[in-house]
UniProtKB/TrEMBL annotation, chains A, B:
Molecular function via GO: ATP binding; pantoate-beta-alanine ligase activity
Pathway(s) of this molecule: Cofactor biosynthesis; (R)-pantothenate biosynthesis; (R)-pantothenate from (R)-pantoate and beta-alanine: step 1/1
UniProt keyword list: ATP-binding, Cytoplasm, Ligase, Nucleotide-binding, Pantothenate biosynthesis
This protein's record includes keyword Repressor: no
Organism of origin: Leucobacter soli
Enzymatic class: ligase
Other known facts: The reaction proceeds by a bi uni uni bi ping pong mechanism.
Subunit (UniProt): Homodimer.
Cited CDD domains: PanC
Protein name as catalogued: Pantothenate synthetase
Gene transcribed to yield this protein: panC
Catalytic site: H40 (proton donor)
Length: 294, 294
C-alpha cells in the first residue's frame, strides 16, 4: 500500500496501475475524514470487490466545519487508519494537507441549491457545510479520477448532495451509496461515537429505537407524521437526548411530507452531551389493502 | 465533421477518435457561444495545430446572462457557425440545448470568490455572470474531457476565472489563452459587433485608440493612473461612447493599482448604443533608466 500526500504523488502511484483502469473495474475511491470504523471498512470492501485499484482519501476538510470547535475535536488517528486501510486491501491512501487541497489564493466553491443544502444538516451546521462537502468531493474526484466513489447512507443528505452535483456537472463517475453499518444495539457507526461517555453511549441507542418505532408503526398502517412523531420524540427525550430535528421528507427533494404515502426518509439528529448523532431510515408506505395482502 | 446535441452523442463521436487521445495531443476544446468570428477561428486554429481531435462547443449559456434582453439579443446563426467550423477543421461540434445542459432539477453552481468575480465585468453584469461562466465551463470540461481548452484573451477576466477554477478544483485540463484578434482599426473582434450601426462601428475604434494611447504614454514613462486615465476617458467621450469602467488592475488579483510599476491590465468597457464593448491591454512598466536603456 502506498501513501500519497499530494495529487502528484497519487497520480504517480496510480499510473503504475492505470493500464487496468481503462476497464470497467478501474479505480474506486472511498473519500473519508479518517477515524475509520466498520462503516468505512464496508465502503472499502465494496470498492475492493468492484475495482482493480482502491484509493482511500483521508482529509478532515476544514471547509465543511462551520464550527471550529467541532473541527478541532474531530477524532484523528492516522497511524491506526493506515493500518486498517492496509488490512482492508486499500492500494493507495491519499492523505493531503489542508495546504495541498486549499493553497493560498484558493477561491472556488461548488454549491448545491439551498433547497437541498439549507435544510436538515445544512440548517443546523450552517450554509457552508454542504458547500464544503461539494467542493472537496468535486476536487477529490478530479484528483483521483475514479470510476466510482463510495459513500455511506448514514449521511444520506451528503449522499444526495454529492449525487446531485455529479449529475449536474456531468462528472464522469458513478456514485455508490452503501448501507449504514450499526452496532449490536442499532447505533449507526460514526467517528464521533468515540467521544461518547459510557452513559451517553447507552443513551445513544434511543436514536435507532426511535427510528425503528416509526418503521414499526408505519408497518401497522400508521402513516400520519403527526401520529408518528410524538412517540419517537418521547423515546429520545426519555434517554436524555436533545433532539435537533426529526424530519419526514421526500428522499430526493427533501420536501417535508405530512404522511408516509410514498417513499419517505425519516431523518433524525440528536445531541448526546457534546456529540451530534445523526441517523435516517427509508420508509415505504404499507402495501394497500386488498391487493393480495389482505 | 459530426454534430452532437447531447453528451452521449459527443462521447460516441469522440470514442471513435479516443485511441489517439491518450497521447499528448489528445482532444482540444474550444468553448463558444456561437456567432463565430475571426477570434473564435484563431482559437480553433490553435487547437487544430495541437490536438488529434478538436471539439467546438456552441452554447448560448442562459446562466451567464443576468439580463434577459442581452440573452435574447445575442446573435445566433448556427448554420453559418457549422459551415465555419467545418472549414476550420473542427471534428465535432457540440451544440446542446439548454435542457440538455440544465435539465429540470439542476441545482449546482460553481463560483469563484467575488474578489475576482464581483469586480469589472462582474460588477456591471451582476454577480451571477461569472457563476454562470464557471458552472458551464466546468460542465463542458467534464463532458468533453479535453486535454486543453482554448479561450480568448479579449475576455481576460473570464480567462482568469476559468484558470482559477481549473487550478482550485484540480481539473485535469490545460487552459490556453489566445491573443485578441482585431479589425484593421484595432477593434477587438466580438460577436456583439454585428449589432453595431455603421456610426457606432466607426465610434467603437475609440476603445482600442484609448488603450493604445495609454500604452504609448506608459512607454514614455507616464505610469500614474491619475495621469493615464483622463486622456483615455476623453478619447472615449469624444467618440460618443459611454464608459462603464476604465480600470488598472493587477493581472492575477484584479486589485486596482495607482501606478503601472509592475505588470498591469488596463481593462475597459464602454457602450456604443445598445452594444457593450470590452477590451484590455497588458501594460508593462518602462525599463528602468540606467540599466542599459539610457
Amino acid at each position: 500500500m502506498r501513501i500519497a500526500r499530494t495529487a502528484a504523488e497519487l497520480h504517480e502511484h496510480l499510473s503504475a496501475m492505470r493500464p487496468r483502469s481503462g476497464e470497467a473495474d478501474g479505480v474506486g475511491l472511498v473519500p473519508t475524514m479518517g477515524a475509520l470504523h466498520e462503516g468505512h471498512l464496508s465502503l472499502i470492501r465494496a470498492a475492493r470487490a468492484a475495482h482493480a485499484a482502491v484509493v482511500l482519501s483521508i482529509f478532515v476538510n476544514p471547509k465543511q466545519f462551520d464550527d471550529g470547535g467541532d473541527l478541532a475535536a474531530y477524532p484523528r488517528d492516522e497511524e491506526q487508519d493506515i493500518a486498517l486501510a492496509r488490512a482492508a486491501g486499500v492500494d493507495v491512501v491519499f492523505a493531503p494537507s489542508a495546504d495541498e487541497m486549499y493553497p493560498s489564493g484558493f477561491a472556488t466553491t461548488v454549491s448545491v441549491h439551498p433547497r437541498l443544502t439549507g435544510v436538515l444538516e445544512g440548517a443546523v451546521r450552517g450554509a457552508g457545510h454542504f458547500d464544503g462537502v461539494a467542493t472537496v468531493v468535486c476536487k477529490l474526484l478530479a484528483i483521483a479520477r475514479p470510476d466510482a466513489a463510495y459513500f455511506g447512507e448514514k449521511d444520506f443528505q451528503q449522499l444526495l448532495v454529492v449525487r446531485r452535483m455529479v449529475e449536474d456537472l456531468a462528472l464522469p463517475v458513478r456514485i455508490v451509496g452503501c448501507p449504514t453499518v450499526r452496532e449490536a444495539d442499532g447505533l449507526a457507526r460514526s467517528s464521533r461515537n468515540a467521544r461518547l461517555s459510557p452513559e451517553q453511549r447507552a443513551a445513544a441507542a434511543a436514536v435507532p429505537q426511535a427510528l425503528n418505532g416509526i418503521a414499526d408503526a408505519v408497518g401497522r398502517g400508521v402513516v400520519g407524521v403527526s401520529e408518528l412523531r410524538p412517540p419517537a420524540l418521547e423515546t429520545l427525550e426519555r434517554a436524555g437526548l436533545a433532539c435537533e430535528y426529526l424530519a419526514f421528507v421526500h428522499p430526493e427533494t427533501l420536501v417535508p411530507v405530512d404522511a408516509v404515502d410514498g417513499p419517505t426518509v425519516c431523518a433524525v439528529a440528536a445531541e448526546a452531551g457534546p456529540v451530534r448523532l445523526i441517523d435516517n431510515l427509508l420508509l415505504n408506505p404499507p402495501a394497500p389493502e386488498g391487493i393480495g395482502h389482505a
